[in-house]
Specification:
The chain is built from six helices and ten strands, in the order H-H-H-H-H-E-E-H-E-E-E-E-E-E-E-E. The protein is an alpha+beta fold and 349 residues long. It has two domains: 120 residues; 146 residues, Rieske Iron-sulfur Protein (3-layer Sandwich). The strands form three sheets. The chain has a four-stranded antiparallel sheet. A four-stranded antiparallel sheet has the order 5-6-7-8, with no helix packed on it. Helix 2 runs antiparallel to helix 3.
């Protein structure tokens, strides 16, 4: 049976004939470009004008969002309380969202209603274009600018320019105003822990007795401070550096402490801040005694001084030395003996 009899359904790639040439099988018919359907703004000048005004309005709303973010930055500064920080962050976030969304929504609406939506077909051509082709492309860009109607809509052009020009202020003003701020990196070398500070559960603040912990127990720990202090901005900042993961092992499984004698009856306490980039390390595997960082999978062996056994981290987790007081509560014997978290300039260790 010849290839021309009972032809197979059309395909994108046709089979080769016996002599290596393409057989003359049926191919898919080029459907071509669908018929162009004009939009209302293409046929009704009043509709086009309404949409232009709407786009300008959205760009102006974006400008108000940018101005609002700058005003919020200076007028609503954190006052040291949790509520103050929350309010300042909320106002900045909402204002910047209005600014960015305004630019995005206005640009999309502009493209959908006023810019040219005619379909154009360009045949595939060699990568290296001739001078004539490049000249044609440059001319097409010029024609595209004309189709967009920018020259005929100066108000629209002005509003988009104003919105784009103002938006960087929402980022630049906070950055510039922070220049000359607190660059004292020595504060990273110390935390709230000190000799005699009791260990408390996070976030309840309930004190921890050594006798209440069973082998395999894991607790998220913070320093014990008065309840009223926990509402201050200072506490929030210092707590971020002082968070600790407490684990009770069978003393026979404990190979060594990162700090000699820093554990108590198999109970060890290590900083929760990964020494890679500072993510919270809190995924504990009881059988292997491994502690995993969920961000980049750095793995630390709690039974062996929290040394790194896998991942990009280069240093063990700092260990908090602990003991018990006269009432049986776990207390710190000292602060961490090295800075917590990832490396930074001027770090000595």
């Amino acid at each position: 049976m010849s290839e021309n009899q009972n032809p197979q359904p059309s395909r994108d790639v046709t089979p080769h004939g016996g002599d290596g040439t393409l057989a003359q099988a049926d191919r898919f018919t080029d459907p071509g470009v669908p018929e162009h359907k004009p939009r209302l703004t293409d046929t009704d000048p009043r509709s086009a004008k309404r949409n232009e005004r709407l786009i300008v309005l959205i760009f102006l709303i974006s400008c108000l969002g940018t101005v609002g973010s700058v005003v919020a930055y200076f007028a609503v500064r954190p006052d040291g309380t949790t509520e103050g920080v929350r309010l300042s962050t909320l106002l900045l976030g909402v204002a910047m969202a209005v600014s960015l969304l305004g630019i995005g929504i206005a640009a999309v609406h502009w493209a959908k209603t006023l810019m040219s939506n005619h379909e154009h077909v360009e045949e595939r051509h060699p990568s290296s274009s001739s001078d004539e082709v490049r000249a044609v492309v440059a001319n097409q860009f010029k024609e595209g600018g004309k189709d967009a109607g920018i020259a005929r809509r100066p108000m629209l052009l002005g509003s988009v320019g104003l919105a784009l020009a103002l938006f960087p202020l929402s980022i630049a003003v906070p950055l510039v105003s922070s220049v000359g701020g607190d660059w004292n990196v020595s504060k990273f070398r110390h935390t709230m822990w000190k000799k005699g500070t009791r260990l408390a559960y996070d976030p309840s603040g309930r004190l921890i007795r050594a006798a209440d912990l069973t082998v395999g127990s894991v607790a998220h720990v913070i320093p014990d401070v008065p309840a009223e202090e926990r509402e201050t901005h200072h506490w929030i900042t210092e707590k971020a550096k002082a968070v600790v993961l407490l684990v009770r092992l069978d003393p026979r499984d404990l190979k060594r402490d990162h700090r000699e004698g820093a554990s108590y009856d198999g109970i060890v306490a290590y900083s929760k801040i990964c020494t890679h980039v500072g993510c919270p390390v809190a995924l504990y595997e009881q059988q292997t005694h491994h502690l995993l960082c969920p961000c980049h999978q750095s793995t630390f062996d709690i039974a062996d001084g929290a040394k790194v056994v896998f991942g990009p981290a280069k240093r063990p987790l700092p260990q908090l030395p602990i003991t018990v007081d006269d009432e049986g509560y776990l207390v710190a014997e000292d602060d961490f003996n090295e800075p917590i978290g990832p490396s930074y300039w001027e770090r000595l260790k």
